[in-house]
Amino acid sequence: MTNKRNGFLRFIFSMLPGAAEMYMGFMKMGLSLMTIFFLLIVISVGLESGILMIADVVVWFYAFFHAHNLAGMSDEEFYAVEDEYLIPFDKLSFDTKMLSEEAKKVISICMILIGVVLTYQGINKMIAPFIPTWLNDMIYQFSYSLPKVVVGLAIIYIGTKMIKGKKIELDSENEFEEEDTNE
């Protein structure tokens, strides 16, 4: 059962993304927010990229104000709110028929990259004691920098695709408007 509960405790719990939602009875919302928050921390620490922590700050603020907005609703509005995942974990399916070909390609590439990285790390740990220190240091530096380069290039690629898609969309809208004014 959801309810607004104690305001002071709700405020304290709102300091941790998702905890206030859970305190008010919205377990799925709270779990979603906590998962996103901590997953972003793990990824940014794993990639040693502080820039990703900006997204974590955004999630923290969203969760904080989301909890207080829920508490500020009238009783009718509050009880009408459904507890749903922010990311629909319960609706995710591994039925590949529902995925587009492009989505299948992206998932396949990600799986291959993860497999390559795991294989590389395993082999590197096995052979490290048998290679010279200078070569091991060089391999370490390469391994340390490569994930940052790959993620950076992926972000650039996605950004350029988004800009091109928006430009094509705007161009088609302008052509449509010109056709309407000519008629």
Could you explain how this protein is built, in words?
The protein is mostly helical and 183 residues long. The protein folds into two domains: 7-91, no CATH class; 96-182, no CATH class. Helices cover 73% and strands 0% of the residues. The chain contains seven helices and no strands. Helix 3 runs antiparallel to helix 4 (53-71).
Shape: flat
How would you state the average pLDDT, rounded? 81
Overall number of domains: 2
Order of helices and strands: HHHHHHH
Structural class: mainly alpha
> Taking Cα atoms only, what radius of gyration do you get, to the nearest Å?
23 Å
How many beta-strand elements? 0
> Which strand-content bin applies to the residues?
under 5%
Number of helices: 7
* Percentage of residues assigned to helices: over 70%
Largest sheet entry:
none
The low-confidence runs, each spanning 5 or more residues with pLDDT under 50, are none
Q: End-to-end span in angstroms?
A: 60 Å
In terms of topology, how is this protein built?
Elements: H1 7-13, H2 19-23, H3 27-46, H4 53-71, H5 75-80, H6 101-127, H7 133-182
Helix pairs in contact: 3-4
What distinguishing features does this structure have?
single chain, mainly alpha, 183 residues, 7 helices
